[in-house]
Amino acid sequence: MKKRLFVLLIVLTILALGAIPALAGPPQKAEGLWQYQPFILGVKEAGCNTFLTIFENGLWTGTFEGTSIDDGKVVIHCNGAWSFNAIVSFEGSVAGKSGTLQMSVVGGRPDALSDWEGKSVILSGTGELANLRGQGTFWGPGASEVGEWGDIYYEGNYHFEP
Question: Stretch 40-67: mean pLDDT, rounded?
Answer without folding.
Answer: 98
